[in-house]
Amino acid sequence: GVVLPSGRVVVAGWYNWCCGQQANSSDTGSAVLLSDDHGATWRVGGKVPKQAAGQPNECQAAALPDGTVVLNMRDAARGGHRLLATSTDGGETFSAATQIPDLVDPTCQGSTVAVGNTLLTSNAYSRYGRRNGTLSRSSDRGRTWEQVSVIDAGDFLYSGLVDLNDTHVGVIYETCYFGQLGIVYRAVSKGEAAVLV
Question: How far apart are CA 171 and CA 184, in angstroms?
Fold first, then answer.
């Protein structure tokens, strides 16, 4: 989760309102949980609106300095790219999800962090399988992205990012070695061209 300048805690997730029945695309999506008392109590916040294209589900929130919440989401409709939605009211409501043409994705979880006004994302940057783990950067609130570095050219499944310092992020990710699932941690350069404001 993330903490907004107001102190609100925002945790992103994939919801399913089927109440024990088999899930279908009409009752699942991306949403956030909100707490205004440091996690003592929680309530459901905004849900990403349903739309004709794309089916957001697994997601991660990042918070920009002005309090804007950015959701970076997997597309269960297998559209070949990641999805993005934003909230300017503390996670109460979200824009419709839009496809991110610069972030190719094979329908896999990805991780996003905000470092100042810069967004960083790790994901399996491939249309053909969960591989080619890549760190990408956006300096325009997620509208456009550039690939900064390859984290692992091999198998790359679920990942998590953390901001370490001015030059590096930490990434922990699932991978397969000789048919066995493993967890790897690496410090990855934010890129020589990084402009972190």
Answer: 8
- Per DSSP, what are the bridge partners of residue 75? 56
Dist. CA 154–CA 173, nearest whole Å: 12
Q: Average pLDDT of 80-100? A: 96
Structure tokens at 8: 């609100």
Q: Is the pLDDT of residue 94 over 60?
A: yes
In single-letter form, the type of residue at position 42 comes to W
Write the secondary structure of 33-45 as one string of H (helix), E (strand) and C (coil): EEECCCCCCCEEE
Q: What is the pLDDT of residue 24?
A: 55
Show the tokens assigned to 14: 């994939």
- Structural contact between residues 158 and 152, judged by C-beta atoms closer than 8 angstroms: no
For residues 142 and 120, what is the distance between their CA atoms, to the nearest angstrom? 9
* Mean pLDDT of all residues belonging to the chain: 90
> Beta-strand (E) ranges in 55-145?
56-63, 69-75, 81-87, 98-104, 111-115, 118-124, 131-138
Amino acid at 145: W
Residue 117: DSSP 8-state: T
pTM assigned to the model: 0.89
Closest of 17, 99, 88, 106 to residue 53, by C-alpha:
99
Instruction: Give the N- to C-terminal CA distance of the chain in Å, as an integer.
Output: 22
